[in-house]
């Protein structure tokens, strides 16, 4: 049976901080971030926004595009994140309750650095394919932080994307998937530590590129397709540079990657990154379009998906907020002090 | 809210804006009640308030109660949802000085408070200028 | 139903009474009232207190105060109605005497608010609002009244300066009250330039955090000459009214109208056979400047929407046609929550006895006290008449 996306949605906080504002405080060279990594500004969640609240907003939009799926029909909900509000108590329970999807529903939270969201999407879809549930929600969301002054502070941002998976009334059919994973310590966070650590340049070739290329090449072979057969491609985007480079290495053009290439203005939304890129691409896709999406999560692994967009996409794109306008409009810029207060980076009294 | 059962009990209202519509006179009670304050009827239809409305009045709290000190200053006001149910909610993602009575707002799902670093997190809705 | 007189009053200077505990201040006020009455016995006592539990960790105030009053094991009732606790305690005490159940009843109000920090006090006060649907979102009392103020100003075109006029008047009155916490004068400029607490209310639009107590002694009119030896003019309680309104603003039909005040006043006027224009001196619940404005309208002193201008034009000043809050009100005198309603009675009794010196309303014979809880969720109104 065909399985894929029935409805999709995203949520991006309205607050932003520019790279120059962060660089100013730490005496860093803003132009090298902007030019070298292609990062200009990033989203900043309010103190009242977390993975749970952002996931509810994205999931509500996915339901708005679902053509009337009742929340009680959702048989499973999987949220992938590296900033779940609780270490023990799934984000999925609150989101399911908010949607009105409880009590007959599977739920567990996922973690795999930045690919927890795409893994959640894969498992949700597979559950539908296995005939276990009629609909399943896969969500990627993060409000992760980088250590103050560290390179990751310039990109760590917040956002969410939700996909209601099913086997009928699809807007995008999933044709092929592949997951490529090895044990690779490029970026990690130990239990009880506040900020993640990373291995510098080791995060590049042996980590991001090795796994992204591994998953992408495997799924291209599985599908018998070449880059030229695709209309769109979305890659994990920890900065603006990496997805452009890996896309080029595979043979994709800038035009193919354009709608899903958001990180220069959004930052790195970690588990939300390629999923949000997918929502932005679906917002402009036409029936029959072929989309390649390849996530990457440190630790490491990549999930690759090949999607075919259906006629139904045209019925749903305008039904609720689209991703690119959310990114571009209604922005509220913060200075570093307000941003530090927002992100609880300031040591408060007991 | 410190009490886990007290918070849990309110999920339909906090999470899904569930209200009661009196089957006799149509009065919308958010939160729902056992008895209609207008006509004293005892049966209600379960409805969900829409997530759109307008500001009836508001203020900016600058001196906050202990659990909200970190959030100050915040705008908070009375919102009337399309269709008639009313609620108190913070208004966020805006310059408080730009708010006005009659402002159209949308309700978004947000974190309302947390019981310190280790207690439960409480969620609900806040208004955002539409 | 017997007619009831107020034969003794007592309080102390209000403020941050660091060295006096909750029980100390209640008993001090009670003994002052008992001495003023000249009685040697009390049949029962009432304690108006909003929250001994949240401010002091102390419940069971009936037992505590009866114990420390030292007059033997008396029946004692703690009455709570948020900021109307004192006024409601007075009404309950009046009922006990009027019904014939007791002859000499002491009614005291008390609040000791400074044993907790400002944030905790703000939280404790906020429990007078709907905890689950207002407090949950971070509402404060200044915030709720600020919302009422904004709606009122939007509807009637009132200005911050008009609201400030209430604070100016009350501080002027309070400067002649030896019991007042803040007996200093303020100007309109000072009020509107003071720090914003909840827009549009500034800190000088708001009553303070205060420790204090006030007490009165009641007895049936028929026993006044026996108990007091005819020492001074008798003050009779001729009207009492009590009403409630929705606890939360979101359920209130009319945001700028204090309906509970209107209803409680109507009941009191009816009982007393009087009307608003008969009242010569009034003490109202000016927890915030906007409250005094709205209440004077709900009492029927001014048309709807005209209360702000009335205050700004001096109509409610001592010497004006409708003096309100000669004591200085909550604004200048202070607002130890449970004590306020009883202190209003203390002031009015003294006014009716002619004992108020520089803040005396000349020839006052008919007085009204209005005490309100929360954002108007409960209100008690009493009418007193002097000889």
Short description:
The complex is a heterotrimer of chains A (350), B (130) and C (387). Chain B is mainly beta and 130 residues long.
Keywords:
heterotrimer; A: alpha/beta; Peroxisomal Thiolase, Chain A, domain 1; three-stranded mixed β-sheet; 24% strand; C: alpha/beta; two-stranded antiparallel ribbon; 11 strands
Describe this structure in words.
- The complex is a heterotrimer of chains A (350), B (130) and C (387).
- Chain A has two domains: 197 residues, Thiolase/Chalcone synthase (Peroxisomal Thiolase, Chain A, domain 1), CATH 3.40.47.10; 139 residues, Thiolase/Chalcone synthase (Peroxisomal Thiolase, Chain A, domain 1), CATH 3.40.47.
- Chain A is built from 13 helices and 14 strands.
- In chain A, the strands form three sheets. Chain A has a nine-stranded mixed sheet with strand order 5-4-6-7-1-8-13-12-11, sandwiched between helices. Chain A has a three-stranded mixed sheet with strand order 3-2-14.
- Chain A is α/β, with parallel strands linked by helices.
- Chain A is 34% helix and 24% strand.
- In chain B, the strands form two sheets. Chain B has a five-stranded antiparallel sheet with strand order 6-5-4-7-8. In chain B, strands 2-1-3 form a three-stranded antiparallel sheet.
- With 130 residues, chain B is mainly beta.
- Chain B is globular, with a radius of gyration of 16 Å.
- Chain B has one domain.
- Chain B is built from two helices and eight strands.
- By secondary structure, chain C is α/β, with parallel strands linked by helices.
- Chain C has 14 helices and eleven strands.
- In chain C, α1 crosses α3, α4 packs across α14 and α7 crosses α11.
- Chain C starts with a strand and ends with a strand.
- The model of chain C has no long low-confidence stretch (mean pLDDT 97).
- The chains are: A alpha/beta (350), B mainly beta (130), C alpha/beta (387).
- Chains in contact: A-B, B-C.
- The interface between B and C is large, with 38 and 37 residues.
